[in-house]
Amino acid sequence: MIGVFAGPAQRGDAADLAGLLGSDAVVPDGPVKPAAFTLWSRLGAAVFFLDAGSAVRLIAPLLRGKDSDPAVVCVDKHFVVALAGDADDLTRHVADVLNLAPVVTGGPLIDSVLDELVEQLDATADGDVAACVAAIDAGEKVVLRNPLNFPLPALPPNVVPGGEDATWVIVVDDRAAAAKDNVLRIVPRTLVVGVGSTRGASATSVGAALSELDAQGGLDLRAIKAFATADAKADEPGIVDAVEDWGFWHGDTAELLTFPTEELAEIGVPNPSSVVRNSMGTASVAEAAALRGARQVGLGAPVELAAEKFKRDNVTVAAARVLPRGRLALVGLGPGPAEQRTPRAESEIRRAAFVVGSPEAVESVASILRSGTEIRHEGAHELAERGAAVAFVAFGTGPTLDIPVEADVIVVPGVWER
Prior knowledge:
The protein contains 14 helices and 21 strands. By secondary structure, it is of the alpha/beta class. It folds into four domains: 2-103, Rossmann fold; 112-188, 3-Layer(aba) Sandwich (Udp-n-acetylmuramoylalanyl-d-glutamate--2,6- Diaminopimelate Ligase, Chain: A, domain 1); 191-322, Nucleotidyltransferase, domain 5; 327-412, Tetrapyrrole methylase, N-terminal domain (Cobalt-precorrin-4 Transmethylase, domain 1, 3-Layer(aba) Sandwich), CATH 3.40.1010.10. The protein has a six-stranded mixed sheet with strand order 2-1-3-4-5-6, sandwiched between helices. A five-stranded mixed sheet has the order 7-11-10-8-9, with helices on one face. Helix 8 links the parallel strand 13 (224-230) and strand 14. Helix 7 packs across helix 8 (237-250). The two termini are 30 Å apart.
């Protein structure tokens, strides 16, 4: 089946193209995204009347690998672009029919595994992503190191946890490291930085202290998710401006969390200060605020002090890490047919390394599983508690928890027709 997808303004053009592509081409009714998600597993090819950026964002959660993905092209005012799968021939054909210029690449423009991994971990990719993608795509051996044990999706079989003679190395870590050839670093945002200062400390002084987290603490400053301090420092210009400067230089934003000194005084820290206690009412600002902020950001996940406090120019900084833990998605499949599953359900299934459920439930989603996904019929709780990314599937509204689980739990209810 060839799906030709377009919004209302271009539905006529899509229908004309479908008529020229043959009897296998269909123009689904309704909005483009839900139609594409519903039909994806049955498509041999897809044509989107969208700009390339919009089409990439739409299909990224659906892609599994070039050997199983449909050929995907997009059509805009001047070009027909090959996006994914074996799309070059279709791109040339559609371009010829519509009298537009074809743009072919010899391969997919995006790699969903790495793209989705970066998105799922709220991370920054540092290195030659395109070259690493090409190595994976060519079947070359790629080593992935995951020292903090983030829950990862199923990976291609040539991406392995260790060994020698790898063409590329992927490292998922929030710690600083020198750039190296053929190393792709994925830096998740796991850190909350606690900041304390004397009254009137400049943003330059705060920034210089932050740099110590890299120079001495060994942390990658791109991993900062939030800053934290005491309520009494919430309007300190040097701290506020330094947080804004960090966002400017990193092309991102980070919230400045503030906490009452009485609350910070209750948090145990390795380096309490009697001087700070006498002046602030708490023995710690930087370390205590970092830990308290990490607990808030982590929503119940365990935290640890990643860097004890550094003091420079009357500014003190420390960093706490939100530790990763397993992910358990409770996914409802609805009545069972693919067209009645929700897009969110399919997205969660594809991001899991393990899919657990009855033989019938697992079989119903077999066509959308990534290569390398492991199938189990029990043990979802245990797998998640060991740090894995797990989708627990069941017909109807979905499975329920009967015992507490030390993992991040996501509920994706199925739609059940009455």
